[in-house]
Each structure stands twice: as structure tokens, then as C-alpha cells.
Amino acid sequence: MKLSFNQTHKYSSLEEDLKYCEEYGFDEIELRLNKIKEYLKNHTIEELVMFFDTHRLKPYALDSLENVTFCDDIQYQQIKDDLNFLGEIGNKIGCHTIVVVPSFNVGDYTINQIKMESIRVLNDLADQAEKMNMRLAFEFVGDPDCSVNTLQQCYDIIKKINRESVGMVLDFFHFHSLGSHIEELKKVDPEKIFVVHIDDADDFPRGYLKQDKHRRFPGEGSINLDEILSTLKQIGYEGTISVELFRDEYDNWGAEEFIRTAKIKTENIVRKHFPSKAILNNDG
Ligand code: ZN
Question: What's residue 279's pLDDT?
């Protein structure tokens, strides 16, 4: 079981995140679009390729294409341009997964209408992604305003699409925040989970708990992490687990302390369910 870090520290650069993730023993890193663009102002893509060629740390996924459904033409063109950009970067650095997020506040659309729109858009984006040898991980967001906000709703879309290049993200915060059911997770084909985001949350009620700033380090909140992790193990998930923490408080920490702490806290929780040997050896 490999551990990844998602570049969520507001003020750290890609250079810093790479340095400290390598230093504190993360296996992989999820690179964010804005941080890559910032990095490329003073670096070349070849420098990034060289980093991954010469370090233990490898890229996990590229984050993210957002608000992809119910778009106007101009918004959609930007999404396709970003997909093209991330596809080119991904092919150079050897990372073939892009996180894709549904739209918010779309208005009076039924679950079935949202399903049809999500299928239409994901198929269209997948046509482009497949040509670039990329795959798409659709992330439901446990916020009442998000058009796809439970595991069941998301997995229903993914199953219907039934394409090797389209899977989903399981984010513990989003799973917990609108009360997705563990029984639904037990029915999921692990091959369809392309990305896992681990985090914890403040103990706020359903629906109120929707903001990223309510995330906490794993083990410091109210999410039943053990139940989700043991279910992932039970269904045979063997991919990477990536810690994704947005919280204003943590942004005040230096990048090094933040990454070091994230690694320790995540490993402590994940190790209970996936053997420490596999983590330490970095071969599982
Ligand atoms: Zn996430």
C-alpha cells in the first residue's frame, strides 16, 4: 500500500512539496494544476521529468478538472484545454490519471438528468483522454450543492459508462459528509476506484460539514476511518492512498512541518489495516 500526498498547502511550491515528500517518505504525490503552472514559470517540464527519474517519489494523479458538467461552450473549451495540458504533462512524467469534479449549483435537475449529463461529458472527455493514454477519476463531493454528492450516485454513473478509462475517486471526507453508506462501498469494484483521498473531519452535522476547511489530519476527527479502510481492504483495493487536507490552520504551518505531520498521522491509521512492511518497503 503506497502513501501519497496531495498538494493542498496553500503557500508551498511544487519544489518544496517534492523535496519534503521525498524526505519524509511519501511514495507518491498528487500534483495540482495551479502548482504545476506556477512551477513552469521558473522551470521546464524536463526538470520535473528529471526529478521523478532520479528520486524515489513518483507522481500519483493530476488534480483536477473542475465543474465539468452543465458548462457553456467557453467553460468547456477551457476544460478541454486543461485536459490537453495535463495529458501532455502526465505523459512526460509518467502519470496517467486525472481527477475530474462535477459542477455545483446546477439548478433544478433530477438525479437522472444529472446522470445523463455526467455520462455525456465523461464519455466526451474520455474520448480525448484515451488518445493521450490518460484516464479520468470522477470525484463526488459530499456537499448538498454538488450535482454528484454520494458514492451511490457517482458509482451508478461510472458503472453505466463502463469504460476502462473512467473510474472514480473515493474521498473519505466526501463519503462521510453526506452520509454515503458503507454497504454501498462493499458493492464497488475496486478496479473502478482510481484514486483514494484520506482525511478526517470536524464533528459537524450532515450538510453543514461540507467545507474543505473542516478537514483534519487522519485520526483527529469524527470519520470512521477504520470502517472505510477495512472495507477497502475487504473489497480488494490495493492502490495508493493519498492524504488530502485543506484547512486554513494548516496553511499557517511551514510546508515541511505540514508534510512531516501528514505522513506520520496517515501512516499510523493506514498501517492498522495494511501491513507496515508493505508501506516501509515501498513495494506494495
Ligand atoms: Zn478529494
Answer: 46
